[in-house]
Amino acid sequence: MSNLIFSFNTVAPVFLLVAIGCLARKIHLVGKHFVDEASKLNFRTGLPALLFLGIYQTAGTDSFDWNFVGFMVGMSIVAAVILCLTIPRLVQDKRKASAVVHTAFKPNIIVLGFPLALMAFGREHIAAMSMLLPVLIPVNNIVAVLLLCALDPEQEKNRTGSLKKSAVSIAKNPIILAAVAAILLREFQVALPAFLLKLLGSLSDMAMPFALITLGAQMTMKSILSDRRYMISATALRVLVTPLVVIPLAYFVGFRGYELSTAFLISASPSAVNCYMLAREMHSDEVLTGEVILSSTFCSMFILFIGIFLLKTFAVIA
Question: Residues of the chain with pLDDT > 90: what percent?
Fold first, then answer.
């Protein structure tokens, strides 16, 4: 019973914050313009501060396991390649095929994976997650752009320009810049002044609830769900098939404890919210993408609850 309570107490606050955002948008407490601007503000301040402190304040350099980072990045790339080679053969419409591949491949690490790790492990046990993010996030973004370019029927002549534009955007990404800065300052043992650490601490405390509330407020897309077959397939690939493949492989190669738990949280996370914005810009099926984001976020609640319960039951996490 205690493990069930622990699992519920870990998952429930995250999805209740998402529900608060949904309700606030539904009763017109906030509007689309506010949600868009608030999301941009948090993306440029709170979330970078959260990730920066997660890396900068991690005790002990031996906790940075590059074997684990390499494994997770390798699994991500392999998954993208397999999806890119198989899905277009099954789905003739390239826009829908790219939407399925994109949403099944790209997890919502920052907004859901990282907060769940904080709640389940505590700040003292998130070294694996903190070190993984600055590598996995840019890799996922770069691979997502390459996938959408490869499956974009309208950009045959402009793929080079699209890739250059996307590369510049990735290089300016505040999440990536914060992670790189934290790694460099940590490696060179640069001590930050107390006032700056307090400022970053205040921003990081705001980041998680703010991100989850705005995530909920963004999830108001209305559609007739005319592509249920594709939506269900992409959702199952994202939150069910991926962890069922990744976790046994991670265990087989020797990862245990919080590394194995981190692999689960990332592999079972729903599709990233920014998939919708990228799909709209790169001629993918943005309606199908939005439907998968919604359904995978809902379904992941149950998968994550069961997974955290099992991790706790088998003493994988303390």
Answer: 30
